[in-house]
Amino acid sequence: MENLFIIDHPLIKRDLTYLRDKNTPSSTFRVILRRLTSLMAFEITKDLELLVKEVETPLEVTQGYVLKSEVVLVPILRAGLGMVDPFLELIPEARVGHIGLYRDEETLKPVDYYFKLPKNLDKSIVIVLDPMLATGGSICTAISYLKAKGASRIKVVSLIAAPEGINKLTTEHPDVQIYIAVLDRQLNQRGFILPGLGDAGDRVFGTEN
Ligand code: PRP
């Protein structure tokens, strides 16, 4: 799978352990999710193209750079919201779209409830953010929508993925680059990733009870 990148780093492995721990409270979970996303963002953005632009130092003119393409961040609500700020710290000029989806607990199919995207998706690098890639239904729905709106250069950033979700995503959207921190073992009958970390949205926002 040439478009699947598993980012292997000791600090990422350590932080994933905090996120997996059922005793990690939401306040800590949010902080770790941000830090982990920052660690991944450096790798995810390393192929962004540059344009040369002159810059005048206090001493002389020299060669500098600006990003060639605009970047659009698209968190999938809710859990993806926890990954936006670390990217904005690195790319403050990025624009942010939102896609609202939740998974029906019975059918495991995604139900959409909100779409708000910037224009010019066709000229942008679109980075989709969602910490969990389980059946892959949510991310595939989001990508189909983004492509229908003109996006063609799409990266997906997830922390934990199940093999079932990766298979669906690479089959339906082989052109999309997928970045994850770990590929977990399997889904259970309720569509939860094993060993996973539970429901990321609930853990970010403290709504598990
Ligand atoms: C979770 C997760 C993904 C989706 C993954 O969201 O954050 O968006 O499920 O599952 P899939 O790959 O099988 O589609 P959830 O539906 O729980 O919504 P929430 O973020 O609002 O809690």
Topology readout:
Elements: E1 4-6, H1 10-20, H2 26-44, E2 50-56, E3 61-67, E4 70-77, H3 84-90, E5 95-96, E6 98-103, E7 110-116, E8 124-129, E9 132-133, H4 137-148, E10 153-157, E11 160-161, H5 163-172, E12 177-180, E13 182-183, E14 186-187, E15 193-194, H6 200-205
Parallel strand pairs: 1-12, 4-5, 4-6, 4-8, 8-10, 9-11, 10-12, 11-13
Antiparallel strand pairs: 2-3, 6-7, 14-15
1-O-pyrophosphono-5-O-phosphono-alpha-D-ribofuranose (PRP) binds next to strand 4, strand 6, strand 9, helix 4 and helix 6.
Keywords:
209 residues, single chain, UPRTase/APRTase, PRTase_dom, allosteric enzyme, nucleotide-binding, eight-stranded mixed beta sheet, 31% helix, Rossmann fold, binds 1-O-pyrophosphono-5-O-phosphono-alpha-D-ribofuranose, globular, transferase, three-stranded parallel beta sheet, alpha/beta
Any idea what the radius of gyration is? 18 Å
Mean pLDDT, rounded to whole units? 97
Distance between the termini: 38 Å
- Globular, elongated, flat, extended or rod-shaped: what is the shape? globular
Reported by name, the CATH topology is: Rossmann fold
Strand residues, percent: 25-35%
What is the string of SSEs from the N terminus onward? EHHEEEHEEEEEHEEHEEEEH
Mind describing the biggest β-sheet?
A: 8 strands, mixed
Number of strands: 15
Low-pLDDT stretches are none
Cofactors, ions, other ligands: 1-O-pyrophosphono-5-O-phosphono-alpha-D-ribofuranose
Give the number of domains. 1
CATH class: Alpha Beta
Protein name: Uracil phosphoribosyltransferase
Function: Catalyzes the conversion of uracil and 5-phospho-alpha-D-ribose 1-diphosphate (PRPP) to UMP and diphosphate.
Binding site for 5-phospho-alpha-D-ribose 1-diphosphate: 78, 103, 130-138, 199
Domain Phosphoribosyltransferase: 7-207
